[in-house]
Amino acid sequence: MGKRVAVVLAGCGVYDGSEIHESSAVLVHLSREGAEAEVYAPDVDQMHVVDHVKGQPTQEKRNVLVESARIARGNIKDLAKLDVKGLDALIIPGGFGVAKNLSTWATQGKNCIISKEVEDVLKAFHAAKKPIGLCCISPVLAAKLFPGCELTVGHDTECEKWPYAKTAETMKELGCKHVNKHVTEIHVDVKNKLVTTSAFMCNAPIHEIYDGIGKMVREVVRLA
């Protein structure tokens, strides 16, 4: 029997939802590993909607579950119905929706609040000692919930290649150990069963991001 892995999405689109390429990479690599993906998203309104051509917010309103269904090809469930007992692992792709719709990281940083449904799911997998895979900005969720855990969001020195490196510093302020890794590498926190990779936190070719996510997915499935 293949492993059953919950994939939690945060909308559809890098600026206000889940990063589409990261989400797709997770689903492709899970399929390749013979794992069954069960896609979930919270049934809530997005923080806001961003015009991805202009990169600016609009007056529109959209629902996180409805938008996430675009990536899941309609095969998606309300996050409130997730039951950790029937699942072997959890993966959360990145995208600003993680920091806007699953938490308030985008506006409050280390003082953020994580949505209750997302917090409950992460804590349930952690308590059950089931692996959790996180990429791009989503490791901040673990940084907030599991003090002392080990994570990577890439590098901690800002430059053209690593434009979001300040995130690593904020995670350290939360008491986490940040481990610098290249985009094609992962970090495994054995004690907490957390597998992280930087993905689009790095200004890298898309195939390198895809490969790094592949390593994360393979390790999550192996640990499950």
From TrEMBL:
Protein name (record): GAL3A protein
